[in-house]
Amino acid sequence: MRLAFLGTPDFAVACLSALVEAGHEIAVVYSQPPAPRGRGQDLKPSPAHAFALARGIPVRTPVSMREPAEIEAFAALNLDAAVVVAFGQILPGEVLDAPRLGSFNLHASLLPRWRGAAPIQRAIMAGDKVTGVEVMAMTEGLDEGPVLASETVRIDALETAGTLHDRLASVGADLLVRTMAAVERGEAVAKAQAPDGLTYAKKIRPKEARLRWTKPAAELDRKIRGLSPFPGAWFELPTEKGPVRVKALLSQVEEGSGAPGEVLDDRLLIACGDGAVRLLRVQREGKGPQEAQVFLRGFPVAAGTVVL
Predict the structure, then answer these.
(1) Cis peptide before 119, with omega less than 30 degrees from 0?
(2) Taking the CB of residue 200, how many other CB atoms lie within 10 A of it?
(3) Range 166-183 average pLDDT
(4) Model pTM score
(5) Phi and psi (nearest 5°) for 176?
(6) Among candidates 296, 199, 166, 299, which has minimal Cα distance to 241?
(7) Residue 59: is its pLDDT beyond 90?
């Protein structure tokens, strides 16, 4: 089919690549405008933008798809369908309805649970045992469209947002290709979302990333894994030169008790309001991620230390 693909982050790239490999004609890729990235904060294209450029696919990066000129240009593409994967804009009805067969979205949750911007992170932070990916026919409401296909994925005990992201991207790309083939054949059946079980996956705010050791260990463990690798849940470690910010990137709940924030042994077991968490992977500010044992060889943390 002749498709437009609208997507921005790494999660979208797996889907775009799979559609190309399946033989679809990608008339154009829409992505968010280049943004400051890296240490130099130079303007760089999004992952989906860069993928398209490398394969000679035209790219458009409008600030808003609601501008009349953008709507007109989109309609002029004479598309069979549009595919949206983590694009980053709410699309108007004129855009959604322009393709001959409609517009379709791959979403990283089992709808109606976790509609919105951060379904992968929120699923882990909430302690969900399963999540998944679904392809829906798009409507103007936020992730409200009827579902055409879904796949369920288990959330493991040491799952992080990063590892779950990669698994869902792979499963989602395969599901999307199969679903678009069914759409092309006229065999796809859309089913309305369940009326109950609705939750919203709000965008992750920077203030959420600070660890508060008075919280229960289970809650802090889920936050650590749900915010790993980005933005990274963090705390401050006292040193002779002042506090050093450390990101906690992987953890597990263990038995232990003490004052909240008290380090209970020499292997980063930290007391919480209820129970304790063992930090398994950390990242000191200005450094790369390290396994805890490697971090401790160069930066020992004695039992009795109180982290903030």
Answers:
(1) no
(2) 15
(3) 98
(4) 0.94
(5) -65, -45
(6) 299
(7) yes
